Amino acid sequence: MELSDGESGLLDVKPVLVFGVFKKLRDPSEFGKVRVSLDMVAWDHGPLS
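Now predict its structure.
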C-alpha cells in the first residue's frame, strides 16, 4: 500500500481472512475488488453467507 504522504509498505492480511466476511477475500478474484473508500478498506462482497 502507498499512503498519501508517499510512504509505502506491505500489510499481511492473512490472519484476518479466517473471520466472517473476510473469508471471501481468500479468493483472488474477490481480493481484487478491494479499494479504499472514505479512508477504510471496502469491497462489494455481495450477500453474506
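Residues 1-49 form one domain.
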